[in-house]
Amino acid sequence: MNLTLKEIKEINTAILNRFGIDYSNHSIISYKNRLLELLKTNNIKNYKDLITKIENNKLSLELLTSQLAIPFTEMFRDPAMWRELRDHVLPKINGKIRIFIPSCTSGEELISMLILLKEEGVLENAKITVSTCSKLIVNTIKDAVFTEKQIELNKANYKRYKGKRSLSDYATNSNAKYYFDELIKNINFIDSRILSGSQLPTGQDIVLYRNKLIYFNLKMQTEVLNIIKESVISGGYFIVGIMENIFASEGMDKVFEEVSKTEKIYKKKL
Amino acid sequence: MSYKGIIIGGSAGSFQVVTKILASLPANFQYPVFLCLHRLKHVRSGFIEALEIKSKLPIVEPEDKTIIKKGVVYLAPSNYHMYIDYGQRFALSTEPSVNYSRPSIDLSFFSASTSFREKLVGIILSGANKDGAKGIKSVKRLGGLTIVQDPKEAQIKTMPNSALDLIEPDYVLTTDKISKLLNQLNELNEKL
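ok -> structure tokens follow
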């Protein structure tokens, strides 16, 4: 099955009319992949049937947004970034550490952050806010279940991160599944789509927003950055994916300065 | 026919082939070259440097939303899928692996063929899995020029053979002949 640009536009119109959410500025190729996956998962024959389902309330907003979200696939992805965060960013933050992870689609980034903070002995000082676009995603994050295969990859990343223990120390293991749910405590989950105008936390010391901008076109990237920058405290840190380019968006050079070019860690100017 | 881009997919056994092809291309090469090669996900550096030694063209790993320019060789970054987006920009993605691979050759080829249609040249080289076969089929279906490295020459034949199972390409060529053909296309393009 394939979807033409015209068909995708019709789907977008249906979602916009029904839920008020605009997908038209999402990066088209990955968005098309998600739509095709959504059709397959829900056994929907073609785009017309999808539109009918949306219009007739047969597909909830929760289900739609969670299935269109692209899950993170690794803990400690880009170990060098996590080392940089641990060795060069964290020591510069005094007292309470306020961390915001916007638009979480699965638990890997949060779990990596919790482990880092715990091993550095500062977890008690941290206040972490996570925003998601769907309660179904919050449940997935809280369940924190990973397969054997996923764990192998995560372990390899953790080893390169040079963590202090073994990754499996943080999980309970049964029936070839690993449960990290014990770690997910005292997290402030908020329900928010960045462009929906809902309140995001402010005064954050670290905002971790990796590999999200790649799913937007340049117009939407710029809009989103202009909102998220307000969450970062002056002198606080903003981190994006290692192949993302915030300076492609006009005006960002006036807001952020580079702390690590390779790991894409930025500091908000005073 | 004037083409607008060359896309090359390869895996095990393709490194030397790519190096040879790149070494043969002139500094005034008129097309962007997209390289989607399977590589170790945790090794971020060194690959470009190794490819660059004999290339007259600059080689870069494109960041997300980089604008595509002719005469530049773009190497898919490790642990991302590399899409050639409509509107002449790259789009990167961390979607799950396809054919155990990220970057996936199929995904890069699908996107490039959809964006460039008949103005794309797709090349599949040596490799140990079938990634790329469906991708080059898409190039063929949309009217692009298709080339498969001669399995007799390929160090690992699985990838070219998988492509040949799905399509009859325009050319089945050795490394030297692929280089020659790309140079001819470039000369034709100069005359246009």
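The CA atoms of residues 1 and 36 of chain A lie 8 Å apart.
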